[in-house]
Amino acid sequence: MKDKLVIAMVGLPARGKSTMACKIARTLEFDEVKVRIFNNGVLRRELSKGNTSAPEFFSPENKDGVASREEFARINLENARKYLENEGEVAIIDAGNVTRERRKRIEKTFQAIPIFYIECVNVDEEANEAYLERKALLKEFKHLSPSEAFDSFFKRISYYESIYEPLHDERNHILVDSFEGCILQVNILDRVPYYDRIRDIITTRIVKNLYLVRHGETYYNQEDRIGGDSDLTEKGLAQARALAEYFSNVRIPIIFTSNHKRTLQTAAPIAEKQEDCSIIALTEFNEIHAGICEGMTYQEIREQMPEVAGARNRNKYGYVYPQGEGYVSMEKRIHRGLQKVFYLNNYSENIMVVGHRAVNRMILSDFVFRQKQEVPYIYMPQNRYYHLQIDPHKKHFELKPY
Ligand code: F6P
Questions:
Q1: From start to end of 104-166, where are the E strands?
Q2: Which CATH number fits domain 207-401: 3.50.50.60, 3.40.50.1240, 3.40.50.2300, 2.40.50.100?
Q3: Which is more confident, 206 or 105?
Q4: In the chain, N or C: fewer CB atoms in 10 Å?
Q5: What is the overall mean pLDDT for the chain?
Q6: Helix (H) or strand (E) holding 231
Q7: Given the CA of residue 224, which atom of ligand 1 is nearest to it?
Q8: Does the pLDDT of residue 361 top 80, yes or no?
Q9: Ligand 1 touching residue 330 (CB < 6 A)
């Protein structure tokens, strides 16, 4: 008989628990482990009659709310118990599990099966805020304005904070920084089946499908001008429509863009063709800032600032535009943008990034090793996109027409 395991997620709302649960489940499935996620929130939305998204529902003072949530937790555990009793090998209890009481309930339900707690934290305030903004876009908050939804979710978190009891008596637990994708603490007293595998999954980047698209043609592109915040041309708009059509049968829940008009204008028709798709603009994905050369053509730079053109030619990766950026100085922000993407996007979902020439080169090189001096020359056309897939068994990337 194969080993059985209960993984219980622990953490405040919006700390990346579900994303982590999904990443673990999806990857264990590759190894043909029978794994299933049991999510309290999903069950609550399925079984509740009215809308239970209001913060008061989560108040520890609200007796009815507490009773309903306890009942959902009980049903969820019962479902997980049945699953493990039958074909299941790993059950992931995806819920806050923030009180000792709740965790004792898990321990009582699974007396003969090891329980492994994964506590998720994220100390990056900006990422937390982005996550809340993302949550505010969810269906259950559709009746509220984005800022009301944000406040409502914030209030919900504070209720959970007020009853949070840190892990202490639990025999097997780890503390994970879900934004950084690293393990901060390990407390393991028993043999935890699949532990080595789970540890690798937590710290490795896994990508189901990443569609890396460059924005459509702009007026600046037509004139060979760099930087700026130009609009798409007719041809660029047609490219965006073609992309929308091409991806209309592929589910894309979020499109990540920069803050520049050209990426937003490219993403808009794609999002429109999807059933429920949000656009999230990240400044981390703004195009390389060319400093004093912003708005110039390459020809003008060669003629008016030959020292800039020459120095960049000699070391394109390491060259930083005066008062601007270089590939080398974009490294950190691009990496951070990608961390946000993975924090905000569920692992079972496809990801689309609509970026820029230099940005997309950097994104690609963050996944696929390239000699640094080659990165600024990676082919990044406007009529094709890169398709990336990374799992523990393969790393695949391909340039495809649309
Ligand atoms: O020309 C479009 C553009 O995105 C510019 O805004 C940017 O400066 C440039 O491409 C980056 O490409 P390269 O590093 O090859 O100049």
A1: 115-121
A2: 3.40.50.1240
A3: 105
A4: N
A5: 94
A6: none
A7: 1
A8: yes
A9: no
